[in-house]
Amino acid sequence: MHRGVSGFETSGNPGSVVSVTDRVIAVEIGMPVSAVHFLGPAAVFVGDEEMLTFVTASGEAARLPVHGGAILSAASDGKRLVTGGDDGKVVEVKADGGVTTLATDAKRRWIDNVALHPDGAVAWSAGKSAFVRGPKGEEKSRDVVSTVGGLAFAPKGLRLAISHYNGVTLWFPNMTATPEVLDWAGSHLGVTFSPDNKFLVTSMHEPSLHGWRLADARHMRMSGYPARVKSLSWSADGKSLATSGADTVIVWPFASKDGPMGKEPGILAPMPARVSMVSCHPKQDVMAVGYSDGTVLMVRMSDGAEILVRRKAGSPIAALGWNANGSVLAFAAADGGAGLFTL
């Protein structure tokens, strides 16, 4: 038997899957969950309505109300968790449980998207408007052609990608220059920069992705999915993009200057259920995968070796997240059934 990265074991039988389900600490959140993030040592499960649930490593849970209605968006950098709600508020939560309302939309519009920048800046959107609040509290806004589909800060510089109908607007909030617009017909939802700042990828309303090489705005069509792609995650080395939307994990290669153009994606972890969530390990060549039947796997990206973390339980996996050093994986199904696995 060979022991590999992060405790993966393979017996030489390619059909064998190691199970660690007996090592998972089960947690019942008691409400539907849309996301999970770590603040310090605590896993924070974002409920669909009003509440966050802080869960310790031993599985002890405590609820914290943050909105007066549905929680529509959430983002975290490990030090703070920022959420947006249908109450028109942008709320920041720290690891000690401190809650601060950062902004309230003047028209009480829904806060559909939030994003965080390493320097402390926060971005959010309401309707067709995107806002950026700098680390010193200064606030700027930009309207785009349609309702904002997604937000992402570039890994270098204070640059915000705003996805919308027929493309993406690239905005430098601290500059007066006209923002660059990357065009492609259709409705663009989620948006992400590659970690090396060379590519931008959006998930579409249709079952496909679209990408651009930022140096020359060259298009990258990434299609062939049977369902809409709702989950994207970059590998630790930034050279691969793992995605949901099929009954396997589709992994697009970004190691070369052309990204995935002219290349076939990798296919990993096939199951008789659709992939609903993907989350790559922050430091190693491993990803967690959640499925529509409630299964959770850990998969080594180099050879497809698998570890079973949770057996199928009906409700789709709606949230996956690693702590900062990748030693703990948290997951939750849409019905609130959740768990913590320590490697």
CATH C-level name of the domain at 1-30 and 231-343: Mainly Beta
Structural class: mainly beta
Task: Give the distance, in angstroms, between the N- and C-terminal Cα atoms.
Answer: 18 Å
By CATH, the architecture of the domain at 1-30 and 231-343 is named 7 Propeller
Strand arrangement in the largest pleated sheet: 5-6-7-8-9-10-11
Radius of gyration, Cα only, in angstroms? 19 Å
Provide a quick synopsis of the model.
With 343 residues, the chain is mostly beta strands. It has no helices and 32 strands. It has a domain at 1-30 and 231-343: YVTN repeat-like/Quinoprotein amine dehydrogenase (Methylamine Dehydrogenase, Chain H, 7 Propeller), CATH 2.130.10.10.
How would you characterize the overall build of this protein?
Strand 8 (61-76) and strand 9 (80-85) form a beta hairpin. 0% of the residues lie in helices and 54% in strands. The chain is mainly beta and 343 residues long. The chain has a domain at 1-30 and 231-343: 7 Propeller (Methylamine Dehydrogenase, Chain H), CATH 2.130.10. A 7-stranded antiparallel β-sheet has the order 5-6-7-8-9-10-11, with no helix packed on it. Strands 16-17-18-19-20-21 form a 6-stranded antiparallel β-sheet, with no helix packed on it. The protein has a 5-stranded mixed β-sheet with strand order 3-29-28-27-26, with no helix packed on it. The protein is built from no helices and 32 strands.
